[in-house]
Amino acid sequence: PEKINPDSKTYYHFFQGIVETQGQNWKAARQGFKTALDTGYFRSVDEKATALMYMAQLDMRGRNMEGARRYLREARELDPSDAIREQINMIVKQSRIRL
Questions:
Q1: What does the alpha-carbon distance between residue 40 and residue 10 come to, in Å, rounded to a whole number?
Q2: Which of 11, 32, 44, 87 is the most exposed place for a label (fewest CB within 10 A)?
Q3: Could you tell me the pTM of the whole model?
Q4: What b/e string do you get for 46-78 counting C-beta neighbours within 10 Å, with b at 16 or more?
Q5: Which CA distances in Å does 13 have to 3, 51, 53?
Q6: Are 69 and 35 in contact (CB under 8 A)?
Q7: CB atoms within 10 A of CB 6
Q8: Around Cβ 86, how many Cβ atoms within 10 Å?
């Protein structure tokens, strides 16, 4: 993955994070999403907001509520589509945290 262009690298790590989440390998999932966000060549706001939501959920698993709040705030500030905004609101409601 080091030899691919930044755009493709973002998606490589994003999808790696999703795959690792499905396998419940939380540490590798976090690293995948973090690398994708650091690379930052997402084609749409919704994709970046989705990566931020995954990071928030991983923080909640680790009981880092402040980190989860930060990621959810950042995702909401991107002004994503209504579907993504609804998912953010659902996460906030279920976890009972305040943004």
A1: 6
A2: 44
A3: 0.91
A4: bbbbbbbbbbbbbbbeeeeeeebbbbbebbbeb
A5: 13, 10, 15
A6: no
A7: 9
A8: 11
* CB 13 within 8 Å of CB 21: no
Dig out the tokens for 58 from the structure.
């991983």
Instruction: Record the tokens describing residue 19, joined without a space.
Output: 């795959």
Residue length of the chain? 99
Q: Could you read off the pLDDT of 49-99 as tens digits, one per residue?
A: 999 999 999 999 999 999 999 999 999 999 999 999 999 999 999 988 887
Contact 82, 52 (CB under 8 A): no
Helices 45-61 and 82-95: crossing angle, nearest 10°? 10
Q: What one-letter code names the amino acid at 27?
A: K
- For residues 44 and 25, what is the distance between their CA atoms, to the nearest angstrom? 26
Rounded to the nearest 10 degrees, the angle between the axes of helix 6-22 and helix 26-39 is 160
